[in-house]
Inverse folding.
């Protein structure tokens, strides 16, 4: 493999990291039955705050910490408004998405384009020397390694541990979980806050490591939060599939960067390229449930019908049954 | 006897709720102002001075008041359109893109009819219709994707916003680029004969005010007083039972999106003919998103939304004055965001108190 290919593949592993954390964070929140649409604003706000705090204190760790805390605070508003006050989760999420974005652009303005500090590479001894695999997977900053572990942990927690199964229960059938003694609303609070902290890490991951710096609207981060939300859906609320979606999206970004340096296409158009694709993938995973598709399938001859419905069933994803539905004790 | 006892009790309960409601709303506004003041302090600015500058920036001269009204017009149009989709229980987050595509169609009509020698008013009318069609088509898309593809309209609309912007940029840098060098500042200006004339000494064209008023009244009448509005409301409350009662929900969903898109397209045409005179990348100016916030703030009330839209427009215009304090103009968005957030939360608090008390 030549050097360009290796760099591109390594770039994908890196570019996917913030999206991975945000999408899996959202995965936990939605698994518990809460829709959190604030992700896009939260990423922008934490990217700005993390950058500014790291710059002023000289500590990267504090930058990430403030990101997690702000992410948690935003999620707390979502949780309080939707669980305790029973307001529309979509409304609150959307308000927060625009509010946090404007807050980031307002407070971050004095720091636009300032040189800051950032995370440096930390190649892993021995492993980095393995041909092909080494340069792609083990020549990164620490966040990339953390992401490998994180994906596996998230999957393991959700599907192989008792609390993980309980989490699935409160998102699928909260009444049944409640009858078995699970405090549904408390758990929803906890997972929304934990997910919020993970989403809040995604911002500093951009501004301190992956897309270094802060330049207001020109940071090119507006929109990634919505992509992360779409990836959660595309991934069918399964961390492994979500991770696949994140790598796929990062691959597209890398492709965009390559295209941009080789063609005359304005960068704004390339930045918009993931969105039609986002719609298309959502169409793919949802269309199997549409009424007219079922009708058409039923009218088909045996052989293509079996094949087609098998394909549709494989790619189809279904949200947790009580996603967005408030839980009320009877 | 029981009836007589019951009546005064209900009234006193109702008036207590009204007072509580008013108190909560005022509390929400004060809280929003306090938090925004804190943010201003963090940004090293004096809050009172900043607020005063916003007031001056919005109302200190005829020119400025006219700018507020000119900014109120597209906001009323987007909010009015959104009341249709909200009534049907739909989230038209894609309105921003619908304004952009409306503007694209409008500018396209002007380019197409530029040299025909037709009467300018005729051309302007055609351009507005073209804009409305553009908005309509772009709004139908998320509706179709939701109904026939199962894609949530929030993601459909949001994705289409980015696509619309890319479309505008492609036109600006490609087929419609200015002679010489293409730039982000937009396409070539439309011919002066197609621009709506301002009132002397202002930047406000009286025609657009009439358009806004007609739009706002149309929505209020449609939603309050027609069969169509009632059916739409029934769908918004529970689309399954509305369907069982014989309302063709699919058609109504698409209609709600379509009407909303028409409003977006007209807002885009207003912006092209009275403000920008060309196609720019951000042709929506954020009016689609702001319209969503206004509608949420007034709990989807048609007449109230026109009034709140005026204050939001004043904030957005007055806010520009802040640059003399070295602040950027995102403060309006921050204050508007906190206002809507706390008012929505206050609704929740009231509902809880009411349930218990």
């Amino acid at each position: 493999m030549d050097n360009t290919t290796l760099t591109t593949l390594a770039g994908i592993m890196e570019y996917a990291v913030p999206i991975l954390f945000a999408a899996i964070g959202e995965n936990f929140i939605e698994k518990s039955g809460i829709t959190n649409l604030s992700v896009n604003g939260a990423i922008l706000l934490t990217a700005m705050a993390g950058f500014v705090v790291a710059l002023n204190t000289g500590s990267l760790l504090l930058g990430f910490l403030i990101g997690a805390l702000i992410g948690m605070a935003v999620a707390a508003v979502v949780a309080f408004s939707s669980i305790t006050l029973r307001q529309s989760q979509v409304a609150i999420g959307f308000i927060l998405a625009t509010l946090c974005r404007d807050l980031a652009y307002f407070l971050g303005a004095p720091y636009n384009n300032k040189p800051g500090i950032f995370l440096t590479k930390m190649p892993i001894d021995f492993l980095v020397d393995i041909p092909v695999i080494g340069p792609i997977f083990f020549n990164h900053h620490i966040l990339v390694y953390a992401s490998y572990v994180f994906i596996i942990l998230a999957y393991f927690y959700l599907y192989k541990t008792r609390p993980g199964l309980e989490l699935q229960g409160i998102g699928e059938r909260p009444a049944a979980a409640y009858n078995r003694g699970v405090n549904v609303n408390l758990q929803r609070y906890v997972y929304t806050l934990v997910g919020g902290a993970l989403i809040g890490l995604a911002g500093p991951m951009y501004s301190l490591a992956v897309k270094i710096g802060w330049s207001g609207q020109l940071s090119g981060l507006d929109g990634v939060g919505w992509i992360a939300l779409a990836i959660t859906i595309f991934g069918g609320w399964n961390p492994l599939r979500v991770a696949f979606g994140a790598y796929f999206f990062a691959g597209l970004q890398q492709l965009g960067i390559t295209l941009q340096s080789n063609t005359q296409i304005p960068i704004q158009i390339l930045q918009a390229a993931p969105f039609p694709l986002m719609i298309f993938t959502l169409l793919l995973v949802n269309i199997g449930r549409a009424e007219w598709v079922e009708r058409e399938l039923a009218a088909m001859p045996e052989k293509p019908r079996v094949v087609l419905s098998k394909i549709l069933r494989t790619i189809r994803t279904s949200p947790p049954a009580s996603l967005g539905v408030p839980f009320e004790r009877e | 006897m029981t009836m007589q006892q019951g009546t005064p009790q209900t009234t006193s309960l109702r008036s207590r709720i009204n007072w509580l409601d008013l108190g909560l709303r005022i509390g929400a506004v004060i809280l929003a102002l306090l938090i925004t003041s804190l943010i201003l302090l963090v940004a090293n600015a004096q809050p009172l001075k900043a607020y005063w500058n916003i007031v001056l920036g919005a109302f200190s001269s005829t020119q400025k008041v006219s700018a507020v009204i000119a900014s109120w017009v597209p906001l009323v149009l987007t909010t009015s359109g959104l009341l249709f989709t909200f009534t049907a229980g739909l989230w038209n987050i894609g309105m921003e893109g619908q304004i952009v595509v409306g503007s694209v169609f409008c500018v396209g009509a002007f380019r197409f009819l530029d040299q025909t020698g037709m009467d300018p008013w005729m051309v302007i009318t055609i351009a507005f219709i073209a804009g409305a069609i553009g908005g309509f088509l772009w709004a139908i898309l998320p509706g179709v994707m939701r109904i026939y593809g199962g894609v949530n309209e929030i993601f459909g609309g949001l994705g289409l916003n980015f696509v619309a912007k890319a479309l505008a940029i492609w036109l600006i840098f490609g087929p419609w680029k200015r002679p010489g060098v293409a730039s982000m500042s937009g396409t070539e200006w439309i011919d002066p004969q197609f621009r709506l004339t301002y009132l002397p000494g202002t930047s406000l064209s009286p025609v657009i005010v009439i358009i806004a008023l007609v739009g706002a009244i149309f929505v209020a009448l449609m939603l309050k007083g027609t069969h169509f509005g009632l059916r739409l409301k029934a769908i918004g409350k529970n689309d399954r039972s509305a369907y069982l009662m014989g309302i063709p929900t699919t058609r109504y969903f698409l209609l709600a999106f379509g009407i909303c898109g028409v409003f977006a397209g007209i807002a885009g045409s207003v912006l092209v003919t009275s403000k920008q005179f060309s196609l720019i990348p951000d042709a929506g100016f954020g009016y689609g998103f702001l319209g969503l916030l206004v509608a949420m703030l007034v709990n989807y009330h048609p007449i109230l939304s026109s009034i709140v839209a005026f204050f939001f427009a004043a904030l957005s215009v007055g806010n520009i004055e802040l640059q003399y304090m070295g602040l950027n103009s995102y403060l309006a968005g921050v204050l508007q965001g906190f206002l809507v957030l706390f008012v929505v939360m206050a609704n929740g608090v009231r509902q809880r108190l009411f349930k218990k008390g």
About this structure: The mean pLDDT of chain B is 90. Residues 73-299 of chain B form one domain. The CA atoms of residues 297 and 340 of chain B lie 5 Å apart.
